[in-house]
Write a structure and sequence with these properties.
Number of helices of chain A: 5
Largest sheet of chain B: none
Strand content of chain B: under 5%
Helix content of chain A: 25-40%
Shape of chain A: globular
Number of domains of chain B: 1
Largest interface: A-B, 25 and 22 residues
Distance between the termini of chain B: 25 Å
Structural class of chain A: alpha/beta
Radius of gyration of chain B: 17 Å
Strand order of the largest sheet of chain A: 5-6-7-3-8
Oligomer: heterodimer
Number of strands of chain A: 8
Number of helices of chain B: 9
Structural class of chain B: mainly alpha
Number of strands of chain B: 0
Largest sheet of chain A: 5 strands, parallel
Order of helices and strands of chain B: HHHHHHHHH
């Protein structure tokens, strides 16, 4: 059983070939770290995996339900953190209890009543993880999940990813930072060009 | 799910004050006319209906910038797309939410405006009926325009150029219905229907193109 599979995927942006012939398969419990210099197409690869970009060539197959963490946190600035997250919980068919649990897991339970616009960069980044935890999507697509996080939060992120893999989920992530992911495959973009 | 989208948008419109500004602008625009053409009650009452419709059109232009671009920038549209929510559904929800925070308040404000312009009760009734039928069309047009200009530089000035010409049929039949009765009302209804059905499709296509 595979959760997501890339089959000879290529991507062009603005008439420029970013990458081609990318193939990999993620089974339950697998993790793939996409690395490479800036502008090499890591974010585009994740957007293709999320179905937000159409690949120039090749196909993406696998589970339809994927959780995507992009550069933007997708939380409304005005409402309290818990209420902003509740919107996504409603869309995902989760409820207030799931939101509270997810908030506790990312270590933000104590500021659940603070408006999103008052949160710090790192807190927003952590908050953006919460809908992913509440959604129970089997495939996680994480674009620079550790940017702006402190050391403890990065460690916590690694724990959450490990647990997700332990529960049969798969993780595809693009990062520059070191996140402790035992047994993860790596994909170096821009190296074999 | 549609309900969650509508609730969110209505709440955002009210909390950011975005729902109040167009109404205030509408009243101001209506007040300017008596200053401009002088306090001739007969003349004001005659042009009053047209003034209210023209002001409504201009007021509908104000919120265009905050309908789609903030959601495109903050990644909300991406997240909805990842969850398999169709962009046509998103656009439809946005039209409904925009109408809720724009249509009824505008109709209330039109009562005040008609007092300022010396419009009698019978004509006010005709105006309100026209607004009830026409404002959903205006809301649909605003959402479609917002999606089309999202991501452009100087989006708000382009929005006026895109939206106002397309809103001319609403203005003609809306203002016409005050004198012309049921024929103009039916045509106004037809224009609104066309906009309400067509706008989500146009907006969805624009959002998908803008994602690249």
């Amino acid at each position: 059983m595979r959760l997501i599979a890339f089959d000879d995927v290529g991507c062009t942006r603005g008439g420029r070939m970013l990458f081609q012939n990318i193939s990999f398969t993620l089974e339950p419990g697998a993790a793939l770290i996409v690395s490479g210099p800036n502008g090499v197409g890591k974010s585009s690869l994740l957007r293709i995996a999320a179905g937000l970009l159409t690949p120039f060539s090749g196909t993406v197959r696998g589970e339809v339900v994927r959780g995507y963490l992009g550069e933007a946190h997708a939380l409304d600035p005005e409402p309290a953190l818990a209420d902003a997250l509740l919107f996504w919980a409603r869309i995902d068919g989760a409820d207030r209890v799931d939101v509270a649990a997810a908030l506790a897991e990312v270590g933000l339970a104590h500021i659940s009543e603070v408006p999103v616009r008052l949160l710090s960069t790192g807190q927003r980044r952590r908050a953006a993880l919460a809908p992913l935890l509440a959604s129970k999507a089997p495939v996680w697509l994480l674009d620079e999940p550790a940017s702006g996080l402190d050391v403890a939060a990065v460690a916590q992120l690694a724990v959450l990813i490990a647990r997700h893999r332990g529960q049969g989920g798969a993780v595809l992530l693009a990062t520059h930072q070191l996140i402790d992911l035992p047994g993860a495959q790596t994909l170096q973009l821009g190296a074999a060009a | 799910m549609i309900l969650a989208l509508i609730t969110r948008d209505v709440r955002r419109a009210w909390s950011s004050g975005g729902a109040v500004f167009p109404i205030a602008f509408f009243l101001l625009a209506c007040i300017l006319f008596p200053f401009g053409v002088g306090p001739d009650r007969v003349l004001l009452a005659r042009i009053g209906g047209g003034v209210i419709w023209a002001a409504a059109l201009l007021a509908a232009l104000l919120p265009v910038e905050r309908l789609i671009p903030p959601d495109a920038d903050s990644g909300v549209l991406d997240q909805l797309a990842v969850r398999g929510v169709s962009m046509v559904a998103v656009a439809t929800a946005k039209i409904a939410a925009h109408w809720i925070s724009f249509g009824p308040p505008l109709m209330l404000a039109a009562v005040i405006a008609s007092g300022l312009l010396g419009i009698d009760a019978a004509r006010l009734g005709a105006i309100e009926l026209g607004l009830l039928i026409g404002t959903p069309g205006l809301a649909a047009l605003a959402v479609a325009t917002s999606a089309l200009v999202a991501g452009l530089r100087g989006a708000s000035s382009v929005a006026g150029l895109v939206m106002l010409p397309l809103a001319v049929p609403l203005l003609i039949f809306g203002a016409g219905s005050i004198e012309g009765g049921s024929g103009a009302l039916k045509l106004l209804g037809a224009v609104t229907l066309l906009l309400v059905v067509g706008a989500p499709i146009v907006a969805a296509a624009a959002i998908r193109v803008g994602r690249d």
